[in-house]
Amino acid sequence: MTALGGVEMGALAARTRALAVLRVRSRALAVALLPAAAAVILLVGGSTGHLVGGGWDVLRWVVCVLALLVLLAAAGVALVVARAEPAMTPTVTVPEESAPELYRMVRDLADRLDVPAPSAIALTPDCDSWLEDRTHPLHGPPPVDRDDDGLPGLGDPARRRSAVAAPVLVIGSPFLWWMRVGELRAVLAPVVAGTGPSAHPDIAAARRFIRGLDAAVAVASAGRRDPLSRAACAGLGWVSRLLLRSCRRHATEMERGVAAAAAERAQAVDYGLRIVAQEQVGLAYAGWDRLLTRVALPAWRMGRWPSRLDVGVVAALTELSRRDRLAEGFASRLGERPACDLLEEPGVVDEAVSLLAARLFHGGPAETRPDWSPVGWEDYPEEVVDRSWRTDAARLHRVLDTLGVRRTGAGTAPGTDGPTLARVLDHLTTPDPAPTLAPPAATDADPAPGTHPATGTTPADTHAPHTDHATPHPAYADHDAPADDSDDLAGPVARRGAPDASGDGQAPHADHATPPPPRADHHGTPADDEDDDDLAGTTARGAALAAGLSAQLAREEARERPVGAGVPASPPGPGAGTGPDAALWDDRALPLLPLQPPRTGREILTAHITAMVCCAAMDTVGAAPGLDWLDGPALLLDGARTADLAPSVLSLVETGDPGPLRAWMTELGIRPEKPVRLV
């Protein structure tokens, strides 16, 4: 789009759509005033002697009462729309005194683009950047305008008002640690340019109206117990949704126009560098997603939160550049100045963002406590990997005890009743050479499926309901998982949809999040049916053991859940400015963005057997727990990562054939008959 009279065509289109949104508001007001206008006509007609008679009197009373009720309802809806707290993304606010160079860079960028500078800067634990309006009174007092840098025009009263009303610039924290200063500036140019169209009165009014309707829907969805409140909320929700549907198309086109105008204005600033920087955006997201799902999630499940997640992103992407020949040039960038140098205390900020990420993606508490403490990368192997493997191995043996499986396995010395890997292998080894695709029919000679062959008893745990877990890394990752995981990590936290190119997307209210329904597959099949289908290709003993592990995990999670719900927000951390803005979103909705889908029974069993094998390797051949930046927990032997044992474990789980796993252990010298240390 080209400029017309100094104004971008995108901005003109956005203003046209904003006026269309405001016309919807005006029409709603006109509809609410129609009964009142009719009542005025009838009253005036009666007072002048034109509309007289019993019928007119009755009509006057009916219309007046109707007008009064409609006016009261309209006033109530308008009051809720105006006073309800708008949506706001959870972030870590960065005050100017803790990042003066970053603020200076953003203001210089805004000055070059000839747009108002953002009123503040905040960080989000996500790979995205956008503008967010926080001028609502419930969001706190607006930041005080400053002209310390002496930028031209900041002393002007009109410019001061514009700066105070400008939106907040939200930056993805992985960008600060992975990108260089010039790359960050190029990426932020079209985002900062979005403050120009945002300052237009019509666009700002249209956005306030839409955010108010969105917040009103949240209020109506909160639910009330008494019938009168429920009826009022139902009416409020119906009106708000009707108006939102009427505005939807115009609001979408308005945001597209704002994005086009911002992109057009930013073309003159670092355009060539921005093309290169966009490649780093994709890399940062890939490293961040992998770090969260493979490295951070196992720690969160163990009650530990890595305190330097953004540093981990750099390590993960550096490792990726070392392994991938296509990324040979990326490591050379590390010699340039990183954007995190624009912060006075990057370590403190990284810790605050890491804690916020643990809350959003896992639902952890807002502050450190005995069962929720930070862990450094140097302590990760011992504090997370070793502990998690031994915890899972202990759970596996507890379930075997419940199933009545004897303690001693083949080749175990007499009198040895400690937890051994041989016990697991002997129990899961099928007596038939062929895989058991379905539980055999019960006969007089054979025990029923899921019963122990010696005792013939059915464990109670095998019929307990499954709980939801997240898919582990196939090699060495296995930990307890939250019950409401999903694999949505693509967009900004607590925001509706992806932001536009200007970054000026609007965030939905955190209260809008509703608890997930009972787990079902993509076809609507309940979770229990899905687990039954998943275990249909395993042996009967494997299915029984998987069911017992699922039941045990369900009981453990029921005792521990919810980790973060109802926990009051922590005060600002030292040196981190204001810390996470947790007071503006609902702790009961945590985690807002669960990382992975629930694990199936087959995956739970595979992960627990893998943990037991790793424990045996550590206790018999001196293997050690390790951390792989791209794959998470790893088993190290003589300082090198061992070969992937997932295929061997799957062979045992699916067919009852321990041959591949025994060959793998023999090659490394692992002795399955030796007892292992558990927790």
Structure description:
Helix 6 crosses helix 9. The strands form four sheets. A five-stranded mixed sheet has the order 5-6-4-3-9. It is flat and about 105 Å long. Strand 11 (about 630-635) and strand 12 (about 640) form a beta hairpin. It has 19 helices and twelve strands. By secondary structure, the protein is α+β, with helices and mostly antiparallel strands. The model is unreliable at about 140-165, about 430-530 and about 560-580 (pLDDT under 50).
Helix content: 40-55%
Please report the distance between the alpha carbons of the first and last residues.
65 Å
> Strand order within the widest sheet?
5-6-4-3-9
As a whole number of angstroms, the C-alpha radius of gyration is 31 Å
Strand runs, count: 12
What can be said about the biggest beta sheet?
Answer: 5 strands, mixed
- What amount of the residues lies in strands? 5-15%
Unreliable segments of 5+ consecutive residues: 141-164, 432-528, 562-579
Q: State the shape.
A: flat
Residue-averaged pLDDT: 76
Briefly note the structural class of the backbone. Answer: alpha+beta
Number of helices: 19
What are its keywords?
679 residues, alpha+beta, five-stranded mixed β-sheet, three-stranded antiparallel β-sheet, 19 helices, flat
